[in-house]
Structure formats: structure tokens, C-alpha cells
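Students often ask why inverse folding is considered easier than folding. One informal answer: many sequences map to the same fold, so there is more than one right answer. In these notes we will look at a single instance of the problem. The structure comes first.
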């Protein structure tokens, strides 16, 4: 639907990153697999659920504002966001969400100092 440039501008990430996230969360959490409701209609697609979660996080969108664009209720949006965050932590914790060791910390400190931001690491815990 989107060119690579349009996709990156609209989603703030490359398509292959989005597709990896989508694939990973689908494999780990059945919530992100499309199901049928009791009337036999298809529920929200995995693409819709991941898109809603990412948009809420990236832009600080309110859950009830997603209703107009994606047709999801506030409750479903909040549930989707919670499921997405829990799944991302579960999938990527060991690879990306670990505490830095001393070697990594020293590299970050040097990089910050070289960029003109001495003491940056000490202020990270004060960021929102």
C-alpha cells in the first residue's frame, strides 16, 4: 500500500522492522493472530493491532481517538497496547532490554562526551 519512503515517514520505521515486530509478536502471543468472533466475522488483523499499539506509543495517541481511524474501542486499544508491550518485553528482553555492562556504559559515556554531552548517563534516570 505504501512505498518504502511513505512507509518510513508514516510509521517512523522501515517496513522490514515493522514486519519483524509483527512476525515476532504473532509467534509468541496468540492475541496477535486473527480470529473470528462469535458471529463468524474476522476480528482485527495483526497488522491493525500492532499499528494501533505503535501509534499510541509513538504519538501519545489516546485510546479513544483510535476508534475513528481503526474502529477499535478504547478498551480494545488499551488491551492491545498492554499485550504488545508485554510481548515485546518477553521477546526482546535478553537482546535489547538488558542493563548495560561496564564496557557498554564506558562506550556510551565516551560517545556522549565526544558529542558534547558530558554527564548524560547520570541524567537518564531523570528523563520522562
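Output (designed amino acids):
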Amino acid at each position: 500500500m505504501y512505498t518504502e519512503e511513505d512507509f518510513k515517514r508514516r510509521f517512523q520505521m522501515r517496513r522490514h522492522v515493522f514486519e519483524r515486530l509483527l512476525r515476532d509478536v504473532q509467534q509468541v502471543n496468540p492475541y496477535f493472530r486473527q480470529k473470528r468472533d462469535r458471529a463468524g466475522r474476522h476480528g482485527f488483523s495483526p497488522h491493525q493491532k500492532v499499528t494501533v499499539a505503535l501509534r499510541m506509543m509513538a504519538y501519545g495517541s489516546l485510546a479513544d481517538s483510535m476508534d475513528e481511524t481503526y474502529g477499535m474501542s478504547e478498551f480494545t486499544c488499551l488491551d492491545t497496547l498492554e499485550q504488545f508491550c508485554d510481548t515485546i518485553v518477553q521477546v526482546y528482553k535478553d537482546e535489547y532490554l538488558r542493563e548495560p555492562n561496564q564496557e557498554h556504559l564506558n562506550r556510551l559515556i565516551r560517545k556522549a562526551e565526544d558529542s558534547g554531552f558530558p554527564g548524560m548517563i547520570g541524567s537518564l534516570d531523570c528523563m520522562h
